[in-house]
Write a structure and sequence with these properties.
Elements: H1 6-37, H2 42-77, H3 85-108, H4 110-117, H5 123-136, H6 139-155, H7 160-184, H8 199-226, H9 242-248, H10 250-272, H11 286-320, H12 324-351, H13 353-360, H14 364-378, H15 381-396, H16 401-424, H17 430-457, H18 464-488, H19 501-525, H20 530-546
Helix pairs in contact: 1-7, 1-11, 1-20, 2-3, 2-5, 2-6, 2-10, 2-11, 3-6, 4-5, 5-8, 6-8, 7-8, 10-16, 11-12, 11-14, 11-15, 12-14, 12-15, 12-18, 13-14, 13-19, 14-17, 15-17, 16-17, 18-19
Length: 547
């Protein structure tokens, strides 16, 4: 079985380092955003919907297409006489044209899009969200460039820049938020009336967010030069397999379309919860859901995305060469890494939900509302990460139809659950319920994906289920230890840990270290095979630091 080889270890560590640094800056950015406009406020929800629109449109139009075809096609293109440069030029040219056209149309359609993603908002809140959207939707163009430029680098084993570039995005945004707070003041509790927002405030807050995404994309061209590539526009698309690749991606496009329908329903349901604020309740709505997702994605991005990106090129190459034994071995090695780290991460997010929420919240009530969402979402972290890797296994086999099937089932279950909750659940628990529906439907999606992949490649993931159970046992014990520590630090109710953002931050760091050390001890005591993977991963970190 393929283990954590030096090349993958170094690549995964380099990408994880970039992700950790970027996510740390992302946390600072989110804290400043919460300080500027709050988390459970109408202004925060207005900006949250507007800033999410370019991500939704990008995923709908091209996200699935790029993920499904670009890396496998780039791997194939390298076998051409020109080392794939002609394919790169043509695909990059096509992406520039398509994303510019779609970005322009989407920006013009901002009022319509805001209307689609919100329910029950006042006219002034809709107007503010629309004003934000005119500034944020152009991010769509730069997200497309970032993905194309980055995947080209990944296909040539230059993994680091793709993971480090978002750090520049966060730096630009942090500067923008700092200037906003300095000029207009902080408003974490939503005292600034929606109707009092001026064009200068909207431009600074939303414009700096878009400037960050633009910087994230453009910086990758510098790294193209470092590996000997240059962007040459070429509009002659025939004869390079681009049409065939797009045809292959049709199922992936359908999959993303279905997913975005689910996202549309979820955002509408979540936005409707804000109506209860008129009754004086602290309500988690769109902005709180976005913060919870940021926290949820931290371990996924650091570990799962880094591991999946490094192994995706390997399994795509093996599949392209017909070496199914290597593909299966590499896939199993990737899943083993994801299982061991995500088991601990799940326990950590559940135990630390309220202290983490307090870092972003002005008070205890807001922290409890956000913390409940984090706990519910964290339940689905491990299956979500495993599905991410299994999808890439299907993409490596150039099979986009099967992911469409199991994703459609997940989305259908999610939509049914969301609509049901809208009609039976109280508003203050609506986003929590949506998060539980997400976790449940993703778990079902994982089971279906695993069965379908096993049948497709006659794959026997030897020992994976047993090792998963043992990892969960170790994570639960580490979680209990962390929970006891939280009680001692006053993290239950209005104790020391929850008194301030600083206390919550310090306590979260201490408890994280305690849980990590406990988990490592438990994996060794339980003689989990994955303990060797962890130590090899840590050795790679030490070697990288020494060099």
């Amino acid at each position: 079985m393929t283990d954590l080889g030096p090349a993958v270890g170094r690549s995964s560590f380099w990408m994880a380092s970039g992700t950790i640094f970027s996510r740390a800056l992302g946390f600072i950015r989110a804290i400043l955003l919460a300080l500027a406009i709050g988390v459970t406020t109408d202004a925060a929800d207005a900006f949250g919907v507007a800033n999410q629109l370019p991500n939704n449109v990008y995923a709908l139009i091209m996200g699935g297409v790029l993920n499904a075809i670009l890396v496998p096609q780039l791997v194939k293109a390298r076998k051409m006489k020109d080392d794939g440069r002609g394919y790169i030029d043509r695909f990059a040219t096509l992406a520039l044209v398509v994303f510019f056209a779609i970005g322009t149309i989407a920006t013009i359609s901002a009022p319509l899009m805001i209307g689609l993603y919100t329910t029950g908002w006042s006219d002034s809140q809709v107007a503010l969200a629309t004003a934000f959207a005119y500034w944020t939707i152009p991010q769509l163009f730069f997200y497309g460039l970032y993905s194309v430029f980055g995947e080209v680098l990944n296909s040539r084993s230059a993994f680091g820049p793709f993971m480090w570039a978002p750090a520049l995005n966060n730096v630009v945004s942090i500067v923008g938020l700092g200037i906003f707070i300095w000029v207009f003041g902080a408003d974490s509790e939503g005292e600034r009336a929606i109707s009092s927002w001026g064009a200068d405030q909207v431009a600074l807050l939303a414009g700096s967010a878009t400037a960050g995404v633009a910087a994230q994309a453009v910086i990758l061209l510098f790294f193209w030069k470092r590996i000997g590539l240059k962007l040459n526009l070429n509009f002659k698309f025939s004869g390079y397999g681009i049409g065939a690749g797009l045809k292959t991606a049709s199922w992936s496009f359908a999959m993303v379309l279905i997913s975005q329908i689910g996202a549309l329903v979820q955002t509408n349901v979540a936005s409707s919860a804000a109506q209860a604020r008129a009754e004086g309740l602290i309500i988690a709505s769109v902005a709180a859901a976005a913060i919870a997702w940021l926290i949820f994605m931290l371990p996924h991005s650091i570990v799962t995305v880094s591991v999946a990106t490094a192994y995706y090129t390997r399994i795509s190459t093996a599949a392209s060469n017909g070496d199914m034994a290597s593909m299966k071995a590499d896939l199993l090695a990737a899943l083993r890494l994801i299982v061991i780290f995500m088991s601990l991460a799940t326990a950590g997010l559940i135990v630390l939900a309220y202290p983490l929420a307090r870092i972003f919240s002005p008070g205890l009530a807001e922290a409890e509302a956000l913390g409940n969402v984090i706990i519910a979402l964290a339940i689905g972290l491990l299956p979500f990460s495993l599905v991410h890797m299994l999808q890439r296994a299907f993409f490596a086999l150039e099979d986009t139809k099967t992911p469409f099937v199991f994703t459609s089932i997940q989305v259908a279950l999610h939509i049914i659950g969301a609509i049901t909750l809208l009609n039976v659940l109280e508003k203050q628990w609506l986003v929590v319920g949506l998060s539980l529906v997400t976790a449940s439907s993703v778990t079902i999606q994982l089971l279906i994906a695993g069965v379908l992949l096993r049948k497709k490649i006659d794959w026997q993931p030897t020992g994976l289920v047993l090792n998963l159970l043992r990892s969960i046992i170790a994570a639960v014990i580490a979680g209990v230890i962390g929970f006891v520590a939280i009680g001692q630090l006053g993290g239950i109710g209005a104790g020391w840990l929850m008194e301030s953002k600083l206390n919550a931050s310090l306590g979260a760091v201490l408890i994280t270290l305690l849980m990590v050390i406990s988990f490592l001890f438990l994996t060794r005591a339980l003689r989990l095979p994955e303990y060797g993977i962890i130590t090899k991963f840590l050795v790679e970190i030490r070697r990288r630091n020494e060099s």
